[in-house]
Amino acid sequence: MSNVKIAEFTAPGIKNNAAKDAISVLDDRMVALIDLQLTLKHIHWNVVGPNFIGVHEMLDPQVEAVREMTDTIAERIATLGGVPVGTPKSIVERRRWDDYSVGKGLVTDHLTALDKVYNGVNEDHRKAIDTLSELDPVSEDMVTGQLAQLEQFQWFVRAHIESASGELKS
To answer: What letter does residue 99 receive in the DSSP assignment?
Structure first.
């Protein structure tokens, strides 16, 4: 399901074609963030082994923050005249990546996989920032702020799977 702009107006000062393009970029980020928050909760429920409780408790604040980011993006889509669609089927249809594959697993297995998830989300947020810089500085600023927080969350994850010499487990 593609995001269809149905309003006849957008935020004052932004051209309709720029708003439509910004909505498309924001929709992609919204899908990624919904997927990320569900993945984080899945890991929270299924992580086991040494350091279980530390990881289990580290993830809930990330879930809440990502949920807040999702809401902010959805509301920006609506502000620009778009329709934020967050139904499960529509999210899966618009997702460009494979589903998270680790079920019940050890801390290191989950965090190594989660690091890869953050790689994708954060790289795509950077690309979105570049695109939005030409379309809508408000959306660009919003996504930039989110990226700072997402990169910090990835740092938290990497601290668990990094060696003393700075190498990540693969």
So the answer is: P
Give Rg (Cα) of the chain. 17
Average pLDDT over residues 68-88: 96
How far is 159 from 168, CA to CA, in rounded Å? 9
pLDDT at 10: 87
Residue 110 burial (C-beta neighbours within 10 Å; 0-12, 13-18, 19+): buried
Tell the residue number behind the tokens 């990835």, with chain if given: 154
Q: Where are the domains of the chain?
A: 16-161
**Cβ pair 11, 80 in contact under 8 A:** yes
State the burial class of residue 147 (Cβ atoms within 10 Å of its Cβ: 0-12, 13-18, 19+): buried
16-161 fold: Ferritin (1.20.1260)
Give CA–CA dist 167/80, Å, rounded. Answer: 43
Task: Summarize pLDDT for 35-65 with one digit per residue, the tens.
Answer: 999 999 999 999 999 899 999 999 999 999 9
CA-based nearest residue to 63, from 153, 159, 157: 153
Residues 6+ apart with CB under 8 A from 89: 1
**Percent of the residues in the chain that have a pLDDT greater than 70, as a whole number:** 97
Q: Residue 59's pLDDT is what? A: 97
